[in-house]
Amino acid sequence: MENNAIIELQNISVEYPGSDHFAIEDLSLTMETGEFICVLGKSGAGKSTMIRCLNGLQIPTEGHVLFEGNDITAYKENKLREVRTNMGMIFQHFNLIPRLSVMQNVLTGTFGKRNDVLSLIGYFDQKEREQARKAIDAVELSPHTNKRVEHLSGGQKQRVAIARALLQRPKVFLGDEPVASLDPGTANRIFQLLKRIHEKHQLLTLINVHDVNLAKKYATRVLALKDGKLIFDGKPERLTEELLETIYE
Amino acid sequence: MAWFKRRHIITTLLLTIIVLISMRAMEFDLTKFRDFRNMIEFLSGWYPIDTEIIPRMIMESLDTMAMAFLGSFLGLVVALPLAFVAARNTSRSPFLYGTFRIGLSFLRSVPEIVFGLILLTALGLGPFPAVIAIILHNIGVLGKLISELIEAADIGPQEAMKSVGASRWIANLFAIIPQIWPNVLSHYFYRFEVAIRTSLILGFIGGGGIGQQLFNHFKTFQYQAVAVDVLLIMIMVILVDFAGSKIRETVI
Questions:
Q1: A232 by DSSP, 3-state: which?
Q2: Helix or strand or coil: residue A173?
Q3: pLDDT in tens, B44-77
Q4: Quick one: which of A3, A63, A79, B68 has the fewest CB in 10 Å?
Q5: What would the pLDDT profile of B140-194 be if each residue is shown by its tens digit?
Q6: Do residues A87 and A51 lie in contact, with contact meaning Cβ atoms separated by under 8 Å?
Q7: What are the chain B neighbours of A109 within 8 Å (beta carbons)?
């Protein structure tokens, strides 16, 4: 079992400067390729902080984060960047680059793995463009390829962000409340897309989500955080009404 | 009295006192306008305008335009990268941030005319020291304004660029520049317009252009030529303002 672990958290705690309590407290977890994990919890429960620890956007105050067996907590910026190229991440507010087209936004997904000067002048070879087109096709946005991203709807914007993450050819797919600003129908379609990508590319997918039904429908494993502590870790079927009440009370 | 608290009344009183003191110091007295007719007499001497010099003055205006453009544009070119070092969120270290902030404040606090007068001693009379003076001051002004835009930029795209593993400078560039670009342009065009007026003043100390002509015409009482100069200056400022808003429109 240990051998399949792609990410391992060893007793991590996070304390933000100036705060008197832990955002994450003594959290230990093992995550494997092939798992589709949904993380539940109220706002401020530590979901965002946890996900940001996985790709080194947040360095835990204590404990270790292991990616493919290597402790990334001690990594310098350059090594961390390399780790991040393996993890696609999407966000609640999509975080696209304004004023650029869908194609241009998707191409920025390659920035971790290529020469800065070539990125700056906007030179992408045939292969990279082809990959970008495929990614845009995979999220069903081909008719909008050359549109500016400001002109898209929320769901379409999130699809662009997913395509950008796909271009990283990630091993891990992270989502920090990716459907929290979308209507229920759109949210469901985004989850369908994530699940499809998850299965096609054999990923570890980890999504923070408010909507318990989405978690029940799509997750293979559910985590629940409360006040920075893990209070549930198991199959979605095992989520009981009492548990949900404790999570959200 | 729902809107007014005691401290509002005190503020009003204080402001009134300061205004009155300043007026006294400045001999601010509207009754002096009873000699208004002198001004009309003086202005009537501006007419008819001296049409003969128009072509030559247009050339001088173009000189002024070049001076203002070069000064403000090269100022922008230098200020843009410096602004990233002088912004809290993109600076590499608090030390660099502090140093560049102070450096920009220094450049900003020295008026162009002072730079111009100092540079005159090394570079001699002419437009070159004037351009350098405008560049230096604009580095200070645009550097500060742009660094504030950078600090106010939405952090989301920066996080996204970080999370794809982009290097710091590429992440900053791509996440921030597109966000702040329209505002950078409007600051720039405003500074261009200001630079036109500044280059007039610098003309008075030998910087050339329409400013120097205006100064000379005034000194030699050629008011019909002065009228031409003033008209051309107005046209220039309006044109830059118009071009600026057109360019901004296409950018947004």
A1: strand
A2: strand
A3: 988 898 989 999 999 999 999 999 999 999 999 9
A4: A3
A5: 999 999 999 999 999 999 999 999 999 988 999 999 999 999 999 999 999 999 9
A6: no
A7: 164
Contact assignment for A116 to B181 by CB distance below 8 Å: no
Question: How long is chain A?
Answer: 249
Interface test with B, best of A108, A118, A166, A176 (most B CBs within 10 A): A108
Q: Is B149 on the interface with A (CB under 8 A)?
A: no
How many beta carbons lie within 10 A of that of residue B244, not counting itself? Answer: 17
pLDDT at B37: 87
The CATH number of domain A1-86+172-249, selected from 3.40.50.11540, 3.20.20.450, 3.40.50.300, 3.50.50.60? 3.40.50.300
Nearest partner of B209 among B130, B137, B136, judged by Cα: B130
Does A87 contact B169 at a Cβ distance shorter than 8 Å? Answer: no
Whether the ipTM is more than 0.85: the answer is yes
What is the C-alpha separation between A135 and A132, in angstroms, rounded? 5
Residue of B nearest to A89 (CA): B163
CA distance A53 to A36: 18
For B191: left if phi > 0, alpha if psi spans -120 to 50, otherwise beta; the answer is: alpha
Instruction: List the domains of chain B with CATH numbers.
Output: 57-153+181-251 (1.10.3720.10)
Task: Kindly determine whether residue A111 and residue B164, on different chains, have CB atoms separated by under 8 Å.
Answer: yes
